[in-house]
Design goal:
By secondary structure, the protein is mainly α. The chain contains 13 helices and 5 strands. The chain starts with a helix and ends with a strand.
Length: 323
């Protein structure tokens, strides 16, 4: 394939990503879905532009032009540093793509429900771009090609763990899908990647890039938290309901909460809320209660707007629970 054709295809790949992201904004759709569509579209483009027929994309000019190499950080190659971002939309083969998109859906969808599409996109792009830097620090000037959304996904997980550590999401833990607190899943994945990075530094997978994305996500979340992003979250990292409202707020309507309480432990939490004499203690039980709930309509986890006293879900469900 000629070089001009490869450049045209690379531009087309970038355009596909831009259009998919723009569609999420225009149609007010899911940014997670748009990112998945972007990755799939670019993969298809790569498959049909490979030098040899097959399901591996490494010989595609799109991968060669948009993939990142540590040597691009050298002064003489710095014009190619844009690949820090574009490499996060490339994948080597179908398994690489499917596994990354599966984990991204599990992690990014609930994260987007809490922080919104713009912040999700920012975390994906920033951590995806910073992830290869840790790999590059240990492989300075190297020519090894780095591609994949893994660094960005680890970045989202790191940010999620800082902003909403106690929220429970479904994650693949040791080949079993389990509903675990975000902080627990993050610690497990971070520990595994650390072990892999130390024990298999020369493998085909850049575990240092995964760790780089995770660290970047944690640091970015610290910045986001200072902006008050988690003030209406479900985990106690933001303000209490009273503080968020600037003073005393009405107590919850416990009868409404009991309707949502399906299990004995949940009913016990409502009872403890009702018996609490201190507002902060009541708020703490409320956060614990909300973290255990599922949306009555779609069975996803609910988000908690403490300022307005409401429970909300991305499917459109909404319930105001104060008297």
């Amino acid at each position: 394939m000629s070089e001009p054709t490869g450049i045209v295809l690379s531009v087309a790949a970038v355009a596909a990503v831009a259009l998919s992201v723009a569609y999420a904004y225009v149609r007010k759709g899911s940014m997670t879905l748009s990112l998945v569509v972007s990755n799939v579209a670019v993969f298809v483009l790569c498959i049909f532009s490979t030098a040899r027929p097959g399901m591996y994309t490494i010989t595609s000019p799109v991968v060669q032009n948009l993939g990142f190499r540590p040597e691009y950080l050298l002064p003489e190659n710095f014009l190619s540093a844009y690949t820090l971002v574009t490499s996060a939309f490339l994948h080597a083969d179908p398994i690489h793509l499917v596994m990354n998109m599966l984990v991204m859906a599990l992690v990014a969808l609930p994260f987007e429900e809490r922080v919104g599409r713009s912040r999700l996109l920012a975390v994906y792009l920033v951590t995806g771009a910073l992830a290869p830097l840790l790999h590059s620090a240990f492989n300075w000037g190297g020519a090894t090609l780095l591609i994949g959304a893994s660094g960005a996904i680890f970045g989202i997980l790191g940010a999620f763990a800082v902003l909403y550590p106690n929220d429970r999401i479904v994650m693949p833990v040791i080949f079993i899908f389990m509903r675990v607190p975000v902080y627990a899943g993050a610690l497990i994945f971070a520990a595994l990647e650390t072990v892999y990075a130390i024990s298999m530094p020369q493998g085909n997978t850049s575990h240092f890039a995964h760790l780089g994305g995770f660290i970047a996500g944690v640091l970015l979340a610290v910045v986001l938290r200072k902006t008050g992003i988690a003030a209406s979250g479900r985990t106690g990292v933001g303000k209490t309901a009273a503080a968020a409202a600037g003073g005393r707020v009405a107590e919850p309507d416990y009868e409404k909460l009991l309707v949502l309480a399906k299990t004995d432990p949940q009913k016990e939490m409502v009872k403890k809320m009702r018996d609490a004499d201190v507002a902060d203690v009541r708020d703490a039980w409320m956060e614990h209660f909300v973290s255990s709930l599922e949306c009555p309509n779609c069975k996803r986890f609910l988000s908690h707007d403490t300022q307005k006293g409401r429970l909300i879900c991305g499917c459109g469900y909404e319930m105001f629970y104060r008297k």
